[in-house]
Design goal:
single chain, mainly beta, seven-stranded mixed β-sheet, four-stranded antiparallel β-sheet, 1 helix
Length: about 130
């Protein structure tokens, strides 16, 4: 069974940092592009960031203004999302996902290309 196990979410104060991890199970990550998405209550799921299978290429949502960093460690079969300067608007359930293509995107069309999804991890930014 192909799946992800996500971890690292939690409650953090505004301005704080969190690092989300996404460990693949049942398949090898190195052939897949990886994306991070989030969904806040009452809102549609939106793309946050993605990274190519090699790790050399990354994309980010414009709204993040350089606060998040995506990375991957193929030998550990794990991807990461480092989040800094967190704001209350970042509160959401965060999901990682895998796309069989070597590179992908985070737009609405690309979202449908991701075939393996994690269960989500809650991130709450509040004082």
């Amino acid at each position: 069974q192909l799946q992800f196990v996500e971890s690292g979410g939690g409650l953090v104060q505004p301005g704080g940092s969190l690092r989300l991890s996404c460990a693949a199970s049942g398949f090898t990550l190195n052939g897949y592009a990886i994306g991070w998405f989030r969904q806040a209550p009452g809102k549609e799921r939106e793309g946050v960031s993605c990274i190519t299978n090699s790790g050399r290429g990354t994309k980010y949502a414009d709204s993040l203004q350089g606060r998040f960093t995506i990375s991957r460690h193929n030998a550990k079969n794990t991807a990461y999302l480092q989040m800094t300067s967190l704001k209350p608007d970042d509160t959401a359930v965060y999901y990682c996902a895998a796309d069989r293509r070597p590179y992908s995107g985070i737009g609405t069309v690309d979202r449908g290309k991701y075939t393996v999804w994690g269960q989500g991890t809650q991130v709450t930014v509040s004082s």
